[in-house]
Amino acid sequence: MQNKILVSACLMGFKVRYNGSEKASLTLARWQHEQRLVIHCPELAAGLATPRAAAEIVDGRGDDVMRNRARIVEDNGQDVTAHYQLAAWLALETAQREQCCAALLTDGSPTCGSQRIYDGTFSGRQIRGMGVAAALLEAHGIRVFSHQQLPQLIAFIAEKDNEDDSVQTSL
Ligand code: SF4
Predict the structure, then answer these.
(1) Cα–Cα distance for residue pair 130/21, rounded to 1 Å
(2) How many domains, in total, are found in the chain?
(3) pLDDT per position as a tens digit, 52-100
(4) Which is the closest atom of ligand 1 to the Cα of 42?
(5) Structural domain span for residue 148
């Protein structure tokens, strides 16, 4: 069984942005060839339209939203919390169904952000924190890496592959 990776759909096609290094791009291309990448957009899966209004988490972070302790609103004031909670559950469902051990997600998003999210004031300010999908994936044991952490993800997958090889050899 290959170690698979859930990937934010909007990251695909922008390989040079992941990391400046050739190794990173080549590794992603190899993973794609090996069918390890599970390309997924949680917000589209949850039925949100494209294009859609900008949305930010207000008074909390992704895990707070999933516990109904914070909301997600659009810049027009509409409360879209339920849509984003559904997006998070669909990301988890996809990752579990595909047996992903890790996720590579676009940072800054109220859904996929894993290092930083916007602060809920629509002023362009960011704070440390996770979006709803990243928080839910981590809470269920799926390691989340931002698109800026590709080298760390490559090291993580290499370690998992080595562990699997050791188990196979000892059988
Ligand atoms: S960052 Fe937004 S657009 Fe990109 S995959 Fe995540 S939910 Fe979809």
Answers:
(1) 26
(2) 1
(3) 899 999 999 999 999 999 999 999 999 999 999 999 999 999 999 999 9
(4) 7
(5) 4-170
